[in-house]
């Protein structure tokens, strides 16, 4: 490289330039002119482990055009050793360095590679990545959460003070007494499935179904009608036994409780389905309740129950199984109706307050959507109403 500069300098002298002009024409640019203002900052509103490194490219386009590539170097002390993180195009002026350790200092340097050599920038001030306690860009979520929590607490407080909270009539639940009465008149048992063959006690639909089971068991005890509850999970069976036993005691008929009627079949999906189908064929229950989480077994169970002539009430939040229940059952609890059913039947203040708060939350969300549509439509003519395009909302 030195030989090349010397030859080019001699050529410039032969062209009539002075010695100083010839040297400056072929001398490489000063290193600190390649990249300036190198700094690293913690990225706000993140989980930590990230620094944003920025720098200014040379203001002189002539100098900048000589750079073929930029190398970002990182070290944990200003003395080094520096290791290369990435190699970038010369027009890039920032880089997000991720995967760092929170609370540790990092130093950066940019090496500009030119044909004349490699020129290192000044070393940046130390930067420390930290995790943010609060994401200021999610204020709207905090407001929504506070509003919903306030509604839940308010309605629970009202329910505990004896206020009547209206929940619309659910047709499937109104038919519970009809189905139990029919089984009593025919002298045949009631079959209750707290969920399908892949249930677990942690499933929220199974828990909602167990609450409904308590109501059905109490009515069955009053009418002295046998209640069969085949389960596919041992824990669900244990809970079902306790709930049915408590319901029989509430009805004043603890002597009519039969623990053997709440039984465990198997946790294999289609083996459980075959077992339940066998119960339907042999015992011929007059009323079938299938409420909870169901998968591919839903249509098999519903069709078998329909073939035996039983009145059937089904309910699930599994969208793909709802059409089968609607087609093969007399009444169907659709989606979240099974959660509302547990509150509707039990009148438990916590459940009632939650249901009412959800209804109000949905009403507020729908109102905000309608308001936004109206404002955005009017903003076509009145730009000052372009509220939802403001910078604050765009950042949420």
Describe the structure.
With 396 residues, the chain is of the alpha/beta class. It has helices spanning 2-14, 19-26, 61-64, 139-160, 171-174, 176-186, 204-223, 234-250, 269-283, 297-307, 322-328, 337-346, 349-378, 391-394; strands at 36-42, 50-56, 67-75, 83-88, 94-98, 107-114, 117-120, 190-193, 227-231, 262-264, 287-291, 311-316, 331-334. It is built from 14 helices and 13 strands. A six-stranded parallel beta sheet has the order 10-9-8-11-12-13, with helices on both faces. It starts with a helix and ends with a helix. The model is unreliable at 1-9 and 15-29 (pLDDT under 50).
Descriptive key words:
disordered N terminus; elongated; 6-stranded parallel beta sheet; 18% strand; 396 residues
In short:
By secondary structure, this protein is an alpha/beta fold. The protein has 14 helices and 13 strands. The protein has a six-stranded parallel beta sheet, sandwiched between helices. A four-stranded antiparallel beta sheet has the order 4-3-6-7, with no helix packed on it. Strands 1-2-5 form a three-stranded antiparallel beta sheet, with no helix packed on it.
The succession of helices and strands, N to C, reads: HHEEHEEEEEHHHEHEHEHEHEHEHHH
SS class: alpha/beta
Biggest sheet, open or closed, and with what strands and sense? 6 strands, parallel
Number of helices: 14
Q: Any idea what the radius of gyration is?
A: 37 Å
Rough outline: elongated
Helix proportion of residues, in percent? 40-55%
Mean of all residue-level pLDDT scores: 82
The end-to-end distance, rounded to whole angstroms, is 55 Å
Order of strands in the sheet with the most strands?
10-9-8-11-12-13
The beta-strand count equals 13
- Which blocks of ≥5 consecutive residues have pLDDT under 50? 1-9, 15-29
Strand content: 15-25%
